Each structure stands twice: as C-alpha cells, then as structure tokens.
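Record Glucokinase, 340 aa.
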Amino acid sequence: MREANAVGSRGKAAERDTLECWGGVDLGGTKIEAVVVDRAGTVLGKMRQPTPADGEPGDVVRAIHDALEGAAHAAGLTSRQLLGVGVGAPGAVNANEGTLGHVSNVGRGWSTPYPVAGDLGARVGRPVVLGNDVQVAVAAEYRLGAGRAFRSLLGVWWGTGVGGGLVLDGVPWRGRGAAGEVGHMVVKPGGARCGCGRRGCLEAYAGRASMERRAHKAVRQGETTILFDLMRKKGRTRLTSSIWARALAQEDALATWLFGRAVRMLGAGLASAINLLDVEAVVLGGGLGTRLGPEFAGRIHEAMRPHIFVPERQPPVRVAELGELSGAIGAALLAQPPMK
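=>
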C-alpha cells in the first residue's frame, strides 16, 4: 500500500506564479521527503512517501518525481514551475556528472553510477543538482536551524545509516567529496560487518538497518522481542524509527540493549571526531535522531565525555531544529543560485 503525506496551500496558484520557488528532495532508505521552498527557505508545500523497497535506480527516480509533484501541487504549483530542483542522496555523489553510485541502503542498492540528475531533469523539465544527503541537511541547519549560533559544527544524521557533514569556520567542508563520513569511522577493529562491506564501522552498531539485521539474528537465536510484532501491526516491512521508539517506550529488552550499544559506539566515534576537529557543536538529525533526539542527545553527550581530550570544552549536542525536513530544505537551497 502506498502511503503519502502532502501538506501545503492549494488554490493560490496565481500568487505562487509571482514567487521564485525551488524543489528539494531528501532520498532516504525508508522514505522520500520532498519540499517546495521560497528564496528564504520557507516551506510552501511538502510530501512524503516510502522509498521503493526493491526498486531499481529508475524506480527510485520515478518515486522521487511523484513526491516532488505532490509537494509542488501542495504549494499550488507544478514541478515545471520550479526554478530548479536539488536532491540530497546517500552514496557517492558526482555533482558535476549528476550521477549517484555506491548506494547500499536505497531500493536494491546499486554500485554503478546512475544519472539521477539527468533522469529526474527529463521528467520535470527543470535543472537538477545533486548533493550528499547529510551535507545538504547540515548546511540547512547551519543556515536556518540548530547551527545558527556556531561557526563550526559536526552534523550527525542518525537513521538508516549514520551520516555526517561538516561546517568549518563558516564553510561547508567536503574534502574531496567524502568528508564527514563519521558512520564509517572504525570504533571496533574487526568488529561487526557494516553495510559498506567493512568491519567495525560506527554504522554497523548504530545504523537502523544494521540494528534491524542484528535483531533478526537475535530472534533466530531464540531471543524474544516485540519489535517485529509492532512492525507487522503497523503494516511495515522494516523497523522504522517510530517502531523502535515504541519498543523502547515499552522497555523491550532487545531494543534497549541494541540502543545502549549504539549510544556507547556513538559516544566513542563522535568524541574521536571532536578530538580531531575541535568544532563548537554537534547537531543530531536523521530519522532516529529527530524522533529520539530529545531523549538521546543527552545520553550521547554523556557517552562522549570519557573520550573527550578537553572535557571542559566538550561541545553541546543539539537536536536538528528543522526536523525531518532539514535534508529536503537543504537540497532545495543547494539548487538556488547564490544571493547577489
């Protein structure tokens, strides 16, 4: 069954025609979030729908287009009235070529670069730009949300995987294209297998997909949990953040243990990043980070403390203020030309 949520102001098409509007899409492992924003980043319309669980790259692009059309319609527009579209995506983004490759958590996953910008651009008839999903979300939080008060920050997007993004002295830092990948910092040499194929990555312990695989393994070994009962009752095929939240609220032993381990590993990994970069703040976002952040930001902060080299200057952990829309808003901002 397809689920979608479209919100916006219909019946104002004439008003919208006078506005400069851009579309933004946050492509995630479980959901696609699309927004339409104005120059100031104000959301005029939005839509969410599930990511095709078994989709090929072309199927995923079609779903992105559907979500974008829904957001535009909610804003009283069509996608062809947008001035441009940005897409924030996980994996290896080649912004110059408009391709996306090495994607492990979306659809069936794909390694060969796929021309997402060209495919989507042909559907909407507008220019499309690609960016790393977490980097664009962090840029949005830096400009409009929880990072406004800081000149340097580390964004940690805790969801299907664990992504990261950096702003250093007011400048987004992308390195050679893969800076900020805190999820693939090794927190346990030779440890659990990560979705990237390596062992011991932070994501192998804290990513939602990795925790779900570990939960399945525990059930096969005879452990009991309400996680999969909740999943079936909600008609889901994956353990979403809301299911984890409900299991934690009911003190499910397996969910509690998995999240306790995730917090310990997050503490060690993020503290190591702070020791290297000495940024002013950590912003916690993503599906799990947004839903569980108010409770878990403090726990992660405490788990970092034993590993911080300068404990009296430990940076705060702030929850993303733009919530689950930060990635889509950041993607839309990416599509905007610089202010003159």
